[in-house]
Queue: 3 jobs
Job 1
Amino acid sequence: MPRSVNAVASRRRRKKMMKHAKGFFGRRKNVWTVAKNAVEKAWQYAYRDRKNNKRNFRRLWITRINAGARLHGMSYSQFMGGVHEQGIELNRKVLADLAMNHPEAFAAIVKKVKK
């Protein structure tokens, strides 16, 4: 009895992977083994960088809050300590946005924290 291979499923699987490789440069877009390796590596980078992205944004927010607090004569740690003492439940993302785009609102928070 001849060997039976499920060509339909194999082709579908390869087409799906090649679709993910669309837009890659050179052989990475049209040679099966190269494209498969490139797509798998891209998925590894995407997984890792979803975690790194969170870290990077937190660092950015802390930098912005620190800059805003120092304009009012406070360090970041003093400011955040005061925010928690006063029971102000704003996260770093919101505080950073206020420091950047609404300095008068941020100044009001600093004023409350300084008391």
Job 2
Amino acid sequence: MHYLTNFFKCGLCGWGLECFWTGCHSLLHDKSKKLTCTTSIWMFPIYGLAVFIEPIYRLIKDKSMLFRGFIYTFFIFFVEYGTGTYLKKKERCPWDYTDAKINIKGIVRLDFAPLWFIVGLLFERLIRKKKS
């Protein structure tokens, strides 16, 4: 039950962050004061996979925040690449980074590393078990 709860926490948090991010993007790049965001139903379970940060955290909790952030960034890139590759084969991938300067097969944007670093640490804080 604990992991299911955290799956929903991560899925909803990720969706919210994506709405915020794409809404800000619409203001900055499209000059839209409507702050229109875009996302996909597929993103909920993908963000929900951040539930696996908890067991990773248990293994590396004594390491520095910098180290943990890099590990989470790698994990997020791994999940993004895996899910993106699968969805692209099914013609259902909701993102395409082909036009980004540094990308891997249009599925992963390496310049998003600082963002994923912060998001990984946010997910860690959201789902790690508190000491009683």
Job 3
Amino acid sequence: MTVSRPVQEFFSIGDVCQLTDLKPHVLRYWESQFRFLNPAKNRSGNRVYQRREIELILLVKHLLYTEKYTIEGARQRIEEYRRTGSLRSEARLALQHETVENLRAELKHILDILDGKVPVEHSGQ
């Protein structure tokens, strides 16, 4: 019998920063610019993000950093996705793009180590 790990439903801003490779101040700024980025807050007042919001954050990141849209242009593009019913699929594509880019960067780092361009990091364990 295989025991499955529970799926994490909520993420702190620190978790989201790690997952998206963004700084907290960037996330907070985007929340002020994109009305759909409005994470709930827990009893302590800390932001709590859901998976859907992380996908939207990655879509915004893709539009701004990869497609080179302005904030206003990204807002309009996302509204267009919403009107046409393609928002969820576009957000998933952004997640896939981010995953591929991360894998590409890690593979490049491994190749650099193998080519002797980067010293191998040793952990103290």
